[in-house]
User: What shape does this take?
Amino acid sequence: MTESAGRKLVLLRHAKSAWPDGVPDHERPLASRGQRDAPAMGSWLRAAGHVPDQVLCSTARRARETWQLAQPGLGAAPPVGFEDRVYGASAAQLLDLVHQAPPAAKTLLIVGHDPGVPGLALMLAAAAGDAADRMRAKFPTAAIAVLELTGSWDQLAPGGARLAGFVTPRDVSGGGAGDS
Assistant: This one.
């Protein structure tokens, strides 16, 4: 039955961004480290079996660039929605967006920002463990949390998912400083 089959929510914090003078926050581009980390994280998603079939991405330039650089590594071209509401969203607001995901989507990827993405991961993770402790201590740029759940997207509630993994660029390639 489609509604109760296992689902994955993959949360990707945008890669490291630059801070050029006079550029509005929404238009900040990726820094060179972000440009290196994003493709590595896309490749990791594919290798780990977490290729999304639906993507929700912030409209902020650094998030769009993260997606554009990560996507080729997936070996797939899932439909992507660029959503203004992801930019600046709280964990609760991101959960509202998850509730609107297409029922046919089995793996949903959200490319977003701190503090919403880490907050949503911590809100949904049902149990503590090493990965949750690492995530709570620091959710660096380009880090990915993978949450597994059953039931439909619109029924997902706090504590309603299992943290299946948390990986940072440093974990994947040994590169990146892993900071914000």
Notes: DSSP finds six helices and six strands in the chain. The beta strands are 7-13, 54-58, 80-83, 107-112, 144-149, 162-167.
